[in-house]
Please model this.
Amino acid sequence: AWRQESEVAVENATDRAVFVHADDFGESVTYTPSGGAASTISALIARPHGESRIGDLGVVQVGYTARVRDDDVAAPANGDTLATATESFIVRNARQDLGGTLWTLDLELQ
Model:
């Protein structure tokens, strides 16, 4: 029988942490909540790879996103900032994954 994604546990918080950790796939970033103090955390940043065409819809530009652990960022909000060594972003949206251990942040490059 078909199961919803939330019913199938294929990984846990420790497994997911590997993906964002700077020693593995992620990178060290500075996260600053709007009106709060900056902290250094690990994030997995997805950068757009140019433009792509989807049928007759025209050109679609995929934006920047970052995955961060909820242990590092408890409540991300629009207007928070995230900075790498060479780039600066503003958080425009945040979604928590089904397991509740990672946030996906939609970013605007500054």
Summary: Residues 13-20 form the longest helix (8 residues). The two ends are 47 Å apart (CA to CA).
